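Deliverable D2.4 — example input (structure tokens):
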């Protein structure tokens, strides 16, 4: 039984939460389920939150972090998402950091110290980072108020994006944060995955909150066409507004974008192989409505919060329903009518099955690629845990005479086993930190007159934060202001770094590959053959479910998706392609039935129209009047001298 004091404490806490919601996020009200989830977290209960894409998951741990003393530790697998979240929080005036592959040891040191001694509210880390010695030593000194596990489906091999490092989160928590409650969050999880999350994270009597996967404003449809591009153009011409088109290959993004442009449709393309500034420019133009259609691989969309997307079209069939639902769900976040269209042709099934087989290489081939990576980077056995390297797959494959497609799939499987990680869309801006104190720096400036203008410009542009803290810089801007060249500025910064005056971390804009365990002897690489086999079976079943969704034209699309995610009593949506076709057929049969009833009644003699309309329900009257009008126009019916209807037999 809840005491009066507990009720009062709860009311005070939620008033504070609402105030923070308005102060930092500018919202007056919570979205569906957010308040219940936040209440559970603030009541120190382990919580599982299953909210669809765009449902406001991040607020469910960010706001509780602001309500409590200390900081929230967030485990996330995606660098781009971590960076995006941290940038958004900083814009709201909330102090947050992220530790990910690509940061120098010095940068990590500074961030961890800030989390111990500074007023940091959220720290984002990858799951692999949790078990490093430096992190464990520091985390025990932090005042952590909540553990948030984002993309929690990654813990389950039944999920579509399994990450073995997630399996160690429970051990990390029990050893380092035994009294801290946990919130696990995901947008897409079947019932088996939800059960797995609770079990593998060792959640204590968790409160589970699950929003419906139904989207009342989103119409799902399949278009079976041999000439997909023609259908895509037709769809984009028929549905006005912003659009997102997904394809499987980088090459195809440009080919379809060019096709749309030739047909008078504003379009651009996007994939992970583009440079950061290109990706940013294309993304911003689309978000601002300057480009109507973006054609992209699945590298696009994570962290993109564009509300007015009217159509998401898939020209290629995704590997599973989870990925499809998440990508399609980027349409209509403003609550207005939107369309998710998947264009399919008869050859897709065979192509998907062929692609599936090629994406599961043998263990021997995986070991061969692992050894080649170690040779490529000259890594000794037992070394280089969490070391990161620029990765050029073309150069790598040319060096070892390997096929790019086969290598890519082998790397993804090795990554799935937890030995390496590959970040394809990686951008790390240039950063510096001044290591000297003010008096030492002043002496250095006097002794090195040629560097004095650069140091003064750095201090003028970036201020005192440079002293001990890392700050993003732009070498191009500095060069322009000093009437110098970018090359010269980079050279001077590197020189000061070599002297220990500053720590200079130049920009990185290439895919990053990291060894997240000490390097193994490839012949002894402990690949779990049984787990690989099980994962292959799971992924094959997911592909079959995706194909069943595409090929089944005898059931409501929304109902199929909801059934897959464990919602079994939905009924029919009324606005997918199946439901609309059913309405059309029903309308035709109603039309025929009413004509037959009119014929039957008039076969027994003339009737006044009012007499006929009494035979039908109120909602049928408009259709009855329309049919009588059409039958008189075609002279199947006529009026006698009294104004009664007569059926002209034969």
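Example output (designed residues):
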């Amino acid at each position: 039984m809840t005491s009066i004091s507990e009720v009062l404490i709860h009311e005070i806490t939620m008033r504070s939460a609402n105030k923070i919601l308005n102060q930092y996020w500018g919202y007056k009200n919570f979205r569906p389920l957010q308040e219940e989830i936040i209440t559970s977290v603030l009541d120190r209960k382990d919580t599982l939150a299953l909210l669809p894409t765009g449902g406001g998951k991040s607020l469910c741990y960010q706001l509780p972090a602001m309500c409590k003393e200390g900081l929230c530790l967030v485990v996330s697998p995606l660098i781009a998402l971590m960076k995006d979240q941290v940038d958004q929080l900083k814009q709201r005036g909330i102090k947050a950091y992220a530790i990910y592959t690509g940061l120098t040891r010095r940068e990590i040191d500074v961030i961890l110290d800030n989390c111990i001694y500074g007023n940091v509210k959220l720290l984002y880390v990858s799951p692999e980072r949790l078990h490093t010695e430096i992190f464990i030593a520091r985390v025990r000194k932090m005042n952590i108020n909540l553990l948030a596990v984002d993309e929690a489906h990654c813990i389950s091999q039944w999920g579509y994006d399994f990450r073995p490092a997630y399996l160690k989160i429970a051990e990390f928590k029990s050893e380092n944060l035994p009294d801290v409650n946990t919130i696990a969050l995901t947008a897409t999880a079947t019932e088996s995955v939800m059960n797995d999350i609770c079990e593998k994270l060792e959640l204590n009597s968790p409160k589970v909150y699950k929003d419906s996967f139904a989207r009342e404003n989103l119409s799902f449809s399949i278009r079976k066409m041999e000439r997909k591009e023609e259908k895509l153009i037709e769809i984009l011409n028929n549905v006005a507004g912003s659009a997102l088109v997904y394809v499987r290959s980088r090459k195809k993004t440009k080919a379809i974008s060019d096709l749309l442009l030739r047909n008078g449709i504003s379009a651009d393309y996007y994939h992970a192989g583009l440079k950061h500034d290109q990706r940013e420019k294309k993304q911003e133009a689309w978000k601002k409505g300057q480009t109507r259609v973006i054609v992209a691989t699945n590298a696009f969309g994570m962290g993109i919060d564009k509300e007015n997307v009217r159509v998401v079209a898939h020209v290629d069939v995704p590997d599973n329903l989870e990925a499809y639902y998440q990508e399609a769900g980027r349409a209509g976040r403003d609550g207005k009518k939107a369309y998710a269209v998947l264009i399919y042709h008869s050859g897709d099934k065979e192509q998907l099955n062929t692609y599936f087989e090629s994406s599961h290489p043998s263990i021997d081939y995986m070991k061969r690629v692992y050894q080649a990576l170690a040779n490529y980077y000259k890594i000794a056995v037992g070394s280089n845990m969490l070391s990161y390297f620029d990765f050029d797959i073309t150069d790598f494959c040319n060096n070892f005479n390997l096929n790019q497609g086969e290598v890519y799939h082998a790397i993804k499987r090795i990554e799935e086993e937890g030995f390496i990680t590959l970040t394809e869309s990686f951008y790390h801006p240039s950063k510096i930190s001044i290591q000297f104190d003010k008096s030492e720096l002043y002496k250095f400036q006097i002794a090195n007159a040629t560097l004095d203008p650069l140091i003064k410009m750095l201090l003028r542009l970036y201020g005192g934060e440079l002293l001990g803290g890392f700050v993003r810089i732009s070498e191009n801007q500095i060069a322009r202001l000093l009437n110098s060249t970018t090359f010269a500025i980079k050279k001077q910064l590197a020189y000061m770094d070599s002297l220990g005056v500053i720590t200079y971390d130049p920009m990185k804009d290439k895919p990053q590959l990291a060894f997240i365990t000490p390097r193994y002897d490839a012949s002894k690489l402990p690949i779990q053959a049984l787990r690989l086999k099980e994962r292959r079976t799971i992924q094959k079943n997911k592909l079959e479910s995706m194909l069943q969704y595409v090929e089944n034209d005898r059931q409501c699309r929304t109902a199929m998706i909801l059934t897959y995610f464990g919602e079994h009593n939905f009924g029919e949506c009324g606005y997918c392609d199946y439901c609309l076709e059913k309405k059309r057929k029903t309308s035709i049969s109603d039309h025929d039935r009413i004509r037959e009833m009119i014929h039957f009644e008039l076969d027994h003699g003339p009737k006044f129209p009012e007499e006929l309309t009494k035979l039908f329900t109120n909602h049928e009257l408009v259709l009855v009047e329309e049919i009588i009008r059409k039958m008189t126009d075609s002279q199947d019916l006529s009026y006698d001298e009294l104004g009664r209807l007569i059926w002209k037999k034969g």
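The chain has a mean pLDDT of 89.
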